[in-house]
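Lesson 9: reading folded outputs for more than one chain in a single document. The general rule is that every protein is listed as its sequence immediately followed by its structure tokens, and records are never interleaved. Here is the first one.
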Amino acid sequence: MKIAIAQQSYLVDSLGKNATKIAKAIFEARSKKADLVVFPEMSICGYSPCESLLREDYMEPMMQVLQRIATEAYEITVLIGCPTYCEDENETKVYDSAILIENGTITRRFNKKGLSNEESAYCITDKEPNILDWNKKKIAICVGNDMPEDTNADIVINISADNNADKSKQFADCQNTVICVRQCGNGFSGASFIKDEGKILTELSIDNDELVVFDTESSPLI
């Protein structure tokens, strides 16, 4: 299985520009025969629009852009960070989510569990397990500082925009394959990485947009 990691920089609230950059990376990953391409936390809106997430006029264009990106995801699976919404009769609830898109269709949502104090002002969480059984692999999906809920997962995928956390230390005890994809530039620390059996196989730059493909069966980078 070939997994592409797309480290990118984004502008907060620049939905159209961010979507164009994401679509180009999907095209590049597909041209490299990747089965899955992974983007950072809150890729579509940039991290973090904060109170804007609670505005009703922010929801519709966000979901329109997500659907636009989904149309680009043919012949490849996409995992991408995007806020999602769950309305009840009292208030609008916002999740910091990892969205799974398969052949142009949004099929799953994995919500961030460990919210910071700042995030708790506009985001909520749930208790649904963030485990994906896909392509004969058990994959633990971790958003931000979340840790895998299943230590027996074959692969841990972390999407993040946190510019303070040392992700290599966060997953220091994981002997699984760990794929960490982070935002870069604009004050974010980049340095996305792939680790296998406790060893760093590759670490991307701090500032630059990059895309690499990892073969989970033979471990080469493409």
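And here is the second record, again sequence then tokens.
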Amino acid sequence: MTRNLAKSDSSKICFRIVVTVAALVLVLHCGTALAVAQEQTGASVFNRTCVSCHGRNGTPSAVGKSLNAPDLGSAAVQSHTDAELHQIIANGKGNMPPFKNSLSDGQIDALIAHIRTLAEQHK
């Protein structure tokens, strides 16, 4: 009987390990999926809202150049904190209008995540 209890305890431990590992894999996968979804959302918000002035890759379009829009991949823009970029997008700056009434905080955060990827094009 002691032997059967040992096997039972061993089975329970193995089951707990398998469940724990599965849960960790699920959490890591969901985190990655969330990051991908946020970037896709950020890119789509960028394409709808920002491209006309900042261009597809963050480099100002002709319209953006006439309005003195900054290159979003530049060190000057990338050096801003996320909070500073959030404030600029929400409240506007210079010729850029405020977007706090047309974009949610989540959309602005996704947009900031996308803007961070534009620095890669300047390396």
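What the second record shows: Residues 19 and 37 are 26 Å apart (CA to CA).
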